[in-house]
Amino acid sequence: MTLRRIVLILLLSALPTFILCQTSKGAADSLQYPKTEKLNIFEKSFRPSEYDTDLHLKTKNSSDTTRLSTVPPDTFAVAPPDTVQGYRIQVLATNDFDEAASVRNSLNSELPNLWVYMVYDAPTYKIRVGDYVNRSDAYFPLDSLVAMGYKEAWIVPDRVIKNPPPKPITPASPDSTSEAIQDSLIKK
Question: Containing domain of residue 156, as a range?
Answer without folding.
Answer: 83-161
